[in-house]
Amino acid sequence: MSWLVAVLTTLPNAYAAPAGSGLDKKVTVEVRQAPISVFLDSISQQTKVNFILADGLADEKVTAFLHDVTAEEALSVLRDIKGVDYRALSRGGTLLLAAKDSPVLQQPPAIAGGKELDARVTIRVKGAPLDQFLSSLSGQTKVNFALADGLEDIKVTAFLEDVTAREAIETVLAVKGLSCRKIGAQTTYALEPGQAPDPR
Description:
Blueprint: E1 5-8, E2 26-35, H1 36-47, E3 50-53, E4 61-70, H2 71-82, E5 84-89, E6 94-99, E7 120-129, H3 130-141, E8 144-147, E9 155-164, H4 165-176, E10 178-183, E11 188-193
Parallel strand pairs: 1-4, 3-6, 8-11
Antiparallel strand pairs: 2-4, 3-9, 5-6, 7-9, 10-11
């Protein structure tokens, strides 16, 4: 089990926050032996930045007492001490977090689909089955989803607010090593095994 202990007031910033991403907002985070998801949820509530975690990170423990630091500085603690990096998705309001050298930090697979995937959604799940994640998307967008056999046990942790359905799906595809295809001319999409998932 890994632990992170940090006390931080200011850090020199080696990485510039994307303009308008929310990473330049000041935050206060106090967690003791909490999962990374709790640490990130605290940042999300203060900045409206959304987070998606790659497999294997949700239960990593964090102890940190951070006061009046930027969200980017708080995330640099995870980068420097835990080896967790991130990349911005689309407009920069959603960050994907994974191990520094993880292939999921590369560009996610694109979904060929229509305007129905441009609908804005909000989803907050921790360790939820993939079908629950998709049911929430479907309820907000009226887009239909079908899962290939064996995918119902995949778990998803995501904190997303006001992102497109396309962005949410593409990120889950990258993190879980899945593919997605549109079925016919309808607004139905099938999720199937695809690229090799991140081994971490």
